[in-house]
Amino acid sequence: MWRNCVRLARRGLGRGAVLRPDPTVSRCGVSKDYALPNSSWSQGMMDLYSRFLEMCKDGTWKRIPSYSNSVDHIPGKAFWGVHSKYQPQLWQTINMDTEGVGFEYAMFLNPSEKRMVCLFQPGPYLEGPSGFAHGGSTATIIDSTIGSCATFVAGRVMTANLSINYRNPIPLGSVVLVDSKVDQVEGRKVFLSCHVRSIDGQTLHAEATALFIRLDSTKSLQQQMSCQ
Ligand SMILES: CCCCCCCCCCCC(=O)SCCNC(=O)CCNC(=O)[C@H](O)C(C)(C)COP(=O)(O)OP(=O)(O)OC[C@H]1O[C@@H](n2cnc3c(N)ncnc32)[C@H](O)[C@@H]1OP(=O)(O)O
């Protein structure tokens, strides 16, 4: 499906050339918010989602939609618009068209607390040890959640450091809460921390700290990321 739906664009030739999806084309030609309930969500995931939606009513929390194609949804805004309050996310990595097999998730932002939480239900494609989520998939969802939080406070950022302690394995199909917050901002550096817990709060699955760096505004993203 991926091969059929995505137009790949080769940008540049030779050293440093990258092959990546054309950001103007959504994976199936249709823009879709991937962070919405579907039939694969367990009752626990639905209940938690409803609780957070309830907390959105007074404006304390905001639901963050997730599109693989930002173009239709952020008209006039450059990729990773700087200092956006909150905006649709661009997730080619974690959005899968088959429901329930990979990352099922929904993110909510608490702007005043500079906190981003992610309700996460890992599917079978994320298996590492038998029956449990692969540590790399846990790192991905942590990086995505923390990164979204850093984006909220600082605009265009990249992960410079991510340190994770894995405390208890995450059973596939279970629901965990990835809870991240900004601890400190020093110039271009954003320090964050994160805990991943079961929804009853009894099991600590992982804890992490991260450093994100706000990209130099005088350089384009291309320059910033080119080989030096
Ligand atoms: C709609 C869509 C939303 C989308 C929402 C987006 C969410 C994003 C989530 C996914 C994010 C990723 O996976 S990003 C992919 C993984 N990350 C990467 O590939 C990053 C690779 N690294 C880099 O490109 C670069 O090293 C940067 C950009 C991180 C930093 O480069 P730079 O901008 O030139 O900055 P530089 O001068 O080196 O460093 C600035 C300051 O930070 C310090 N510093 C730099 N790196 C480190 C480090 N690892 N540990 C400690 N300190 C460090 C330096 O000492 C310096 O301190 P001082 O001297 O000033 O005191």
The major sheet is characterized as:
7 strands, antiparallel
CATH class: Alpha Beta
Estimate what percentage of residues fall within beta strands. 25-35%
Query: Could you say which small molecules are bound to this protein?
Result: dodecyl-COA
Q: How many domains, as an integer?
A: 1
Radius of gyration: 18 Å
Structural class: alpha+beta
The ordered string of helix (H) and strand (E) elements is HEEHEEEEEHEEEEH
Q: Return the average pLDDT rounded to an integer.
A: 81
Which descriptor suits the 3D outline? globular
Q: Widest sheet: strand order?
A: 3-6-7-9-10-11-8
- Helicity range of the residues? 10-25%
**What count of helical segments does DSSP give?**
4
Give the name of the CATH architecture: Roll
CATH evolutionary superfamily? Hotdog Thioesterase
Keywords: Apoptosis, Cell membrane, Cell projection, Cytoplasm, Fatty acid metabolism, Hydrolase, Lipid metabolism, Membrane, Mitochondrion, Mitochondrion inner membrane, Transit peptide
Catalytic activity: (9Z)-octadecenoyl-CoA + H2O = (9Z)-octadecenoate + CoA + H(+); hexadecanoyl-CoA + H2O = hexadecanoate + CoA + H(+); dodecanoyl-CoA + H2O = dodecanoate + CoA + H(+); decanoyl-CoA + H2O = decanoate + CoA + H(+)
Membrane topology: Peripheral membrane protein
Subcellular location: Cell projection, Ruffle membrane; Cytoplasm; Mitochondrion inner membrane; Mitochondrion intermembrane space
